[in-house]
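re: that chain from earlier
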Amino acid sequence: MKMDFSKDELAMVYQYAAGTKDDTLAGLKEIVPVIRDRQTREIVESTIRKLDAIPEPECRRFIADTKQHFIQKRDNSIRRRLAEARAQTRTQKPQTKRKQPDRERS
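^ sequence. v structure.
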């Protein structure tokens, strides 16, 4: 069964990912009553419905895959930003500061 999750729904799966379908759903259901923003509540409720429709073995795998995807994306973003910073540092003209000899004050 293929479910289409929005980017926001996938983010919810990632944020509340637990080891099992039931634990993930419990975490999501727990926050629904305290969400004040209507749009956010709809996203969480939609995520719950979609996850609930996936049978357990596939759902557990889907949750793990989603979590792994977000972690990889985050790590790749960090690596990309570090590489860009290194490249920018290499292209800038190095400015060597000469250390002034220590002089005693009179």
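The radius of gyration is 24 Å.
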